[in-house]
Design goal:
The chain has 306 residues and is α/β, with parallel strands linked by helices. It has twelve helices and twelve strands. It has helices spanning 19-33, 53-66, 81-93, 104-110, 131-137, 166-169, 184-194, 210-220, 250-256, 259-269, 281-287, 302-305, and strands at residues 6-9, 38-41, 72-73, 97-100, 142-145, 151-156, 160-165, 173-176, 199-203, 226-230, 233-234, 298-299. The strands form five sheets. Strands 1-2-3 form a three-stranded parallel sheet, with helices on one face. A three-stranded antiparallel sheet has the order 4-5-8. The longest helix is centred in the N-terminal third of the chain and has 15 residues, at 19-33. The radius of gyration is 20 Å and the shape is elongated. The structure holds zinc ion (ZN). The site of zinc ion has 5 residues, from loops.
């Protein structure tokens, strides 16, 4: 007998949700709720320059307006640096970390961004510096984790088989920045692991992050969750719908339409229903099946619909 799944919402409180975020949140919720599972909410606010408390409040209200609820909200990432310290020390004790003094321009001059998230393949410049060389820099370093030459593979609920060799496609990656802030990859691994998350559903732009997280999960003693990277929502000209399209965010939608209409339109655009007939979140959960969701981009011209 399999256990009830634990899913999560992990929004970044830097603005209103756009339709792409809504779609990912809807699928995350429906996948878990349709099997009697629970959801955790967590604010990913590591970047304190860009994130605001007011936005966290609005995000909660927007999710509830859509009919997407959760069972527990865990501590925001900005409050957890001491927790991340413990896991960082664990990696240090395994002798897997080393300081990197490369500047941004040095890193960018070596090669072009590789993975979809703009990750550069790190050539290992600082892997074997001597203590003397390290001291000569006279400034705080970023810390990288050494990656093995090994293939990581996963069976994604939406994208199917995916595999990546971190050593050739990414290189040793940063887990803590020079200013002491932990990076997304470490924080998300620790947060999902400690919250017992068994299913991670998010946008396709994060698929290439999954192998880095799987590697950290293995090192830090967490089980691998199931992954579902939902397709991106594109406008008919191929432009990705983003927070920049101000008129399409939840602020606009809440004052111009209903949550049932938003869900109905998204469901139809994704090919999950034949017509854009309004649907509540609960009705959507009843009809949603992963096998009916294609991994390909979804085209939607929001201004023509709402
Ligand atoms: Zn370096």
């Amino acid at each position: 007998m399999s256990q009830a799944p634990v899913g999560r919402f992990a929004p970044t409180p830097s603005g209103r949700m756009h339709l792409g975020n809504v779609f990912a949140a809807l699928i995350a919720w429906a996948s878990v709720r349709s099997r009697g599972g629970s959801l955790v909410l967590r604010m990913e606010d590591l970047d304190t320059q860009r994130t605001k408390q007011e936005y966290a409040e609005i995000l909660r209200s927007d999710l509830l307006w859509l009919g997407l609820d959760w069972d527990l909200e865990t501590e925001p990432q900005s409050k957890r640096s001491q927790v991340y310290d413990r896991y960082f020390e664990k990696l240090e004790q395994m002798d897997l970390l080393y300081p990197c003094y490369c500047t941004r321009s040095q890193l960018h001059s070596v090669n072009a961004p590789h993975l979809s998230d703009g990750c550069y393949v790190y050539p290992g410049t600082c892997r074997n510096l001597t203590e003397q060389q390290r001291a000569a820099f006279g400034r705080a370093p970023a810390w990288r984790v050494k990656v093995p030459d090994r293939l990581w593979s996963l069976e994604d609920l939406a994208q199917g088989h995916y595999e990546l060799n971190l050593s050739t496609e990414c290189g040793d990656f940063v887990v803590r920045r020079a200013d002491g802030v932990y990076v997304y990859q470490l924080a998300v691994t620790v947060d999902d692991g400690e919250a017992g998350v068994t299913e991670v559903v998010r946008g396709l732009d994060l698929l290439s992050s999954a192998p880095r997280q799987m590697y950290l999960q293995e090192l830090l003693g967490f089980s691998h969750p199931t992954y579902g990277h939902v397709p991106m929502l594109l406008a008919s000209d191929g432009r990705r719908l983003s927070k920049r399209d101000k008129d399409l965010d939840l602020g606009y939608l809440r004052s111009h339409t209903t949550p049932q209409k938003v869900i109905g339109v998204l469901s139809c655009a994704a090919g999950l229903t034949d017509t854009p007939e309004p649907l509540s979140a609960a009705e959507f959960a009843q009809i949603f099946r992963w096998e009916n969701l294609s991994g390909d981009a979804i085209y939607l011209e929001p201004s023509a619909v709402f």
